[in-house]
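Worked problem 6 (solution included).
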Amino acid sequence: MRKKSGEKESIWRNNGFQTIVASLLCIILGLLVGYIVLLIINPGGAWEAITAIMKNFFYYPSAAAVKKYLGTTLVKASALLMCSLSVLFAYKVGLFNIGAAGQYVVGAGACLYFALGLGMPWYVCLIAAILVAALVGGISGALKAYFNVNEVISCIMLNWIGLYCVNMLLSTVKEQSTPYTKTLSSTNKSALLPNMGLDQIFSKNEFVTLGLLLAVVMAILVWVVLEKTKFGYELKATGMNKQAAKYCGMREKSNIILTMMIAGGLAGFGAGIFYLTGIEQWMVQQTAVPAMGFNGIAAAFLGGLNPIGTIFSSYFIQHITSGGTYVDKTMYCTQISDLISAFIIYLCGFVLFFRLWLNRFLDKREEKRGVKEGKGGEA
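Solution. The predicted structure is:
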C-alpha cells in the first residue's frame, strides 16, 4: 500500500536511502566476519589488526605522511572506480562484464607499450589503452550478439588470453636484470600524466595526477549517459528485453556490442590513469590477472549500482585493501584485507534483498494502519 498523492513519502521508501543503509550494513557485517576470522587465527592481535586495516594511512603519526599515503590510496581507488564503472555499465544493460579484469590488463599493456616501446606522449598512450580494451570488450559483445555466447564464458577466456599476450608484448620493454618493465620516469617522461599541482596537495606525492580528476568526471558522465539520455535509455531497454527493443526499432545487436565496447574502454581507461602515473611497473612473469578488475565487481554492487555511489564504494574497498599491508606480519598475512573484501562482495547481494524486504515490511505496516483507520472511521 503506497501513500496517496500529496502525502509525504517516508524516507525509508527512498531508493537512495535504502541503498545507503543496506551498503553500510554490508560493510559492518563484512568487518565483523573478518574480525571473527582474525580472532580464530590469533585472538591476541585481532583488535590491533582490524584497527590497522581500517586506519590504513592514518597509521602514520606525521600529517605529511598521512596526506602522502592518502594520495596513493586515491590513485589506486581511481583505477578501481573505472573498473567498477565498467562492471556497472554492462550490468545496467543486462550484461555481466566479468572481463573487466582482462580489459584492464590489455589496457595496461597498450599504454605501457606505447609509452616504453614507441615513446608516445601520455594522451596517445591513454587513448591506446581505451581503444584496445574497448576492442577486447567488443569481441565478447559480438559473440553474445551474433552467436548468443554467454558473455561470462567469453570474458573469462579473454582474461587469460589478454594476460599472456600482454606478458609477451611487454617482455620487449622490460628491464635487463628484473622481470619488471622499464620505468616511465627514466625512459619516457612525456608519457607520465601531468600533476596539475595536485601533487603539492598530497605532500609532493608525484603519483597524484590529472587521472584522479578524470576518474570522477567519468563517473558523473556515465551517470548522465545512463539516466539522462536517449542513448542510455535504449541501452537499458535492450538489456531488459532485447526482443522488445528490436520490435521497437532499436538495434539490439549493435547496442550489445557497443555496451561491451564502452565497458571495456572504461576498464582500459582505469589501467591508463593508473600505470601512466608511474606508480607501478608491470611484471611480465605474472600468472594471475590483477585483482583490480574483480574488486570492481564488489565496488559496483556495494555502491548500489549507481555511478556516484561507486565513487565512495571504490574508495572504501581500496582503503581496506591497502590497510591490509599494516597488519602484524608475524601473526597474519596481508591478504586478510582481501578476505574481508570477499565477505563484503558476497554480502552485496544483501543490498537488493534488504530493499525488497524493507518495502514489503512497509507495505504491510501501511496496510495494517489503513485497516485500523478504516475501522475507526466506521465507528
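Discussion: The mean pLDDT is 89.
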